Amino acid sequence: MSLLEIRNATLKFGGVVAVNDLSFSVEKGEVYAIVGPNGAGKSTVFNLISRFYDPFAGSLTFDGQNLLKRGADQIADLGIARTFQNIELFDHATVLQNLLVGRHRHRKTTLIEEMLFTARVRREEKAHRAAVEEVIDFLDLQPYRDKMIAGLPYGVRKVVELGRALSSGPKLLLLDEPASGLSVEETQDMRWWIDDIRTQMGITVLMVEHDMGLVSSVSDRVLALADGAKLAEGTPAEVQADPAVIEAYLGAGAAA
Amino acid sequence: MRIQFKTSYEHDIRLFPDRWSFGVYAALLIVAFALPWLLNAFYLGEATNVLIWAIAGLGLMLLTGQTGQASLGHAAFLAMGCYTGAILMEMGLSFLLAMPLAGLVTGVIGMLFAIPAVRLHGVYLAIATIALSILADDIIVLLEPWTGGVSGKFFEPIELFGQTIDRWSTPHLFYWMVLVITIICTLFYRNLLRAPLGRAMAAVRDSEVSATAMGVHIAYTKALAFGISCAITGIAGFLMGIFSGIVTNETFSLVISIQLLMMIVIGGLGSIHGAFFGAIVIAFLPQALSILTDAVSSSSVAIPGLESGVFAAILIAFILFEPMGIYGRWMKIRIWFELFPFARKDMFRRQKSYLKTERLR
């Protein structure tokens, strides 16, 4: 059974059909990329999975669980973590605190215990801290550990957001344009990280990305979207050679 | 320049980062406990007043500074705690029981209020909470059998451990009692900040979208923040009532709400220190002003509106020149000395922030 299965999902904003009868599934342990021109509905698919939007029709299943029965705040509990296209970090907190918020789904202590800061809270905090430290090591964030987000450069923020998603210990990682706005070197780093996330950590990755270099080098399968509908699906090479994809990107006649 | 070498996770978790800061706070605590021997009765009363305001400030700080929800209705919660405590004590409960109960009742009511209110954002929430402040006045009058209405409610001196604690006859005991309550409230606050719930509150303040994606339930966290904030404020209100000896329907007016909010903005939003700095300003300014006006003019003519005018000017100056409040300024001075001579002029210049994902509501 697939890890994430989307069946006939449809979402409309007024008269605009953002996602149109879309079906695809992501297998455990693969990197699955969604590409498409601007406005194709890529981020909308992410927001459907995060349950920020309710689909008009269709079903979303993750790990055998019906996502539509969950609220947006319960998605993390299932083991889905995500990043945002325009970086949604907690600006007035340090990198460490941001990553620790990623551990929120593992919170076991109650309000009273936390107010008294009992031994259990202390033990849990240390465990969270240790888990976050592994992510910091993995992403080389040591120099920024105690820095405020508000003062960090864009590239680092992008990595911190990836780190926050990883801190939650997800089964599925949704990356919304992980390489947008990054330099060539930073994009290279991102490529290795995504590779390691899959092979070393065993986390399934679903990403939206425009950088075809990154997509073809790291992803196992690619889905091309246009106007909210599936255009092509397959290996990166297959999708790039697909006439319908070339037409959507470059216009009719370009394939000839 | 002090450099900390962190050798265990304990460093990031414990209350004091190093021995030095532990020493500073210990010294501060000793001075605070020794204050009755250092000050006369008048200034000891003022110090008590500062501490009570600081407790109320901590309450509002948790809601506004930590969770990002502005409230102009906290005078109503002060009143609620005050009257609840007074009624409980009239029923024969001891102060030790009445105080936490007053906090609890206020907290629960605050949470109930939050259930509809947390749907509102920013300035709309502030406007909705103003309604509370205005309603409080009328409700106190309407509930005259319990609250004493317009004629007011009087507080008897507290009996605690066989001692009579009264502002006038035993000011030092009253001061110590308030000091202990302040320390307990501060500790609770500090513990919350280093625990998951405190971080969740900051997450709600900075980005509701990603807080949700991280598994934080927004409405629940906000309601909880309201509840804890109101509980602390209720305790402060109870202490305020005992301190002043009599409260009427006009004691906890909208002006008090505004002063509370001003206090935490001047002190520095989002920090414990800010609540205390702000409380010092708010509690001492009227005294300082009257001393100043006495010094400037020999005639004892009261100048109407002088106090609110000066408050307003201070608030505007802070928002324009030091949005981080007194605590922010204090940090800057400290960092300047810690880095000496490497501090740069533009080190604290605020950076342009990047676009936020379109809000999903």
Can you characterise this structure?
The complex is a heterodimer of chains A (256) and B (361). With 256 residues, chain A is of the alpha/beta class. Chain A contains ten helices and ten strands. Chain A has a six-stranded mixed β-sheet with strand order 6-7-8-3-9-10, sandwiched between helices. Chain A is globular, with a radius of gyration of 19 Å. Chain A starts with a strand and ends in a 6-residue tail after the last helix. With 361 residues, chain B is mostly helical. In chain B, helix 3 crosses helix 13 and helix 4 packs antiparallel against helix 5. In chain B, strands 1-4 form a two-stranded antiparallel ribbon. A two-stranded antiparallel ribbon of chain B has the order 2-3. Helix content of chain B is 70%, strand content 3%. Chain B has 15 helices and four strands. Classes of the chains: A alpha/beta (256), B mainly alpha (361).
What would the keywords be for this entry?
heterodimer; A: 256 residues; alpha/beta; six-stranded mixed β-sheet; four-stranded antiparallel β-sheet; 10 helices; 10 strands; 38% helix; 23% strand; B: 361 residues; mainly alpha; two-stranded antiparallel sheet; 15 helices; 4 strands; 70% helix; disordered C terminus
Question: Roughly how many Å is the radius of gyration of chain A?
Answer: 19 Å
What's the overall geometry of chain B? Answer: globular
Beta-strand fraction estimate of chain B: under 5%
Q: What is the number of helices of chain B?
A: 15
Question: How many beta-strand segments of chain A?
Answer: 10
Quaternary class: heterodimer
Strand neighbour order, sheet with most strands of chain A: 6-7-8-3-9-10
Structural class of the helices, strands and pairings of chain B? mainly alpha
SSE order of chain B, as H and E? Answer: HHHHHHHEEEHHHHEHHHH
What's the mean pLDDT score of chain A?
A: 90
Quick summary of this structure?
Chain A has 256 residues and is of the alpha/beta class.
